[in-house]
Amino acid sequence: MRRAVKMTAVVASAVLALSAAGCGGKKASTGGGGGDGKKSLKVGLAYDVGGRGDKSFNDAAYAGLQKVQSDLKLDVKDIEAKEGESDNDKIQRLQLLAQSGYNPVIAVGFVYAPALAKVAPKFPNTKFAIIDDDSVQQANVADLLFAEQEGSYLVGAAAAKKSKTGNIGFVGGVATPLIKKFEAGYVAGAKKINPNVKIQIKYISQPPDFGGFKDPAKGKTIAQGMYDQGADVVYAAAGLSGTGSLQAATSAKKWFIGVDSDQYQTASADEKPYVLTSMLKRVDTAVFNFVKDVGDGKFAKGDQRFSLKNDGIDYSKSNPTALGDLPATLDDLKQQIVSGKITPPEK
To answer: Per-residue pLDDT tens for 170-219?
Structure first.
């Protein structure tokens, strides 16, 4: 009996914490039933390491959630990851969203896979999506996957073509198989343009330490070291840490390539001139389309892949002054990838 009372108190406390945590306190009106399935949806989203404000992966997910809120007029709640959290924290976060009536629920990042594998079977009527993982194959789970190597191939080509020193860099957040896809595509694209290009490669952390996605100071130090060693273009696939790499580029007056979101749009005025392009991973599109499909009764379990072919991957053209005539080359390579003539490597 004492244990039951204790558990009830824990759950009650957690639900109160959840109710205080979401989306800056903003909610869209659910608009009542009205016979429209979408109107009754409440959408929950759980962030990866780094959280909202990383100007990269998580912010791309947040952009999709904002579109859900503005275009579909749905009630939404987003919750941040905690510093140094365990899988049990992730289990609790997903479970609380489902228990609180949020359906669908989106887990941002492969780190949620172990938690989702335990939570999804407990809530068979809740539709879940996980980004960047396909290990959770269950009837109520959609796996949203991206061809990161394709977009990275294009920005690798841009780096090699723009470089005057024949020396470029890659800063990876954490040395996971996922980030290795970014590296593989970048290296292949660069060597397509210049087989002799020198590519400096360094990761901020190794699993199970995922702090490399949220350490701007180290992102800055590593990028600065690459510029000091002759690189004149650096691509950072490092989440929030990439903001530090951009600071290093600005200080060195060298080129920076962003990732996931269009980082030219979030750069400060003094940083913008040094953002050559960004590899766009349209997590926003994936989030919005998933929610819309659930509302339309078109939920599909299993793998859903986003690539250059379906506009789930691309590169940004927000800084035409920096890009110059590069789009002619990059768009040609893009078409070759779409047609299957070029297949960027994943490893």
So the answer is: 999 999 999 999 999 999 999 999 999 999 999 999 999 999 999 999 99
Tell how far CA 142 is from the center of its chain.
16
b vs e for 75-112, b when ≥16 Cβ sit within 10 Å of the residue's Cβ? bbbbbbbeeeeeeeebbbbbbbbbbbebbbbbbbbbbb
pLDDT of residue 323: 97
316 phi and psi angles, rounded to 5 deg: -90, 150
Separation CA 232–CA 209 (nearest Å): 29
Q: Return the H-helix or E-strand segment holding 17.
A: helix 2-19
Going by C-alpha positions, the residue among 106, 20, 24 that lies closest to residue 57 is 106
Residues contacting 179, CB < 8 A, separation 6+: 172, 173, 203, 237
CA separation (Å) from 188 to 256, 257, 347? 18, 16, 10
The pLDDT of 321-334, averaged and rounded, is 98
Rounded Cα distance, 60 and 283, in Å: 5
3-state SS, one letter per residue, for 264-281: HHHCCCCCHHHEEEEEEE
Say whether 12 sits in a helix, a strand or coil: helix
| CA 166/CA 157 separation, integer angstroms | 12
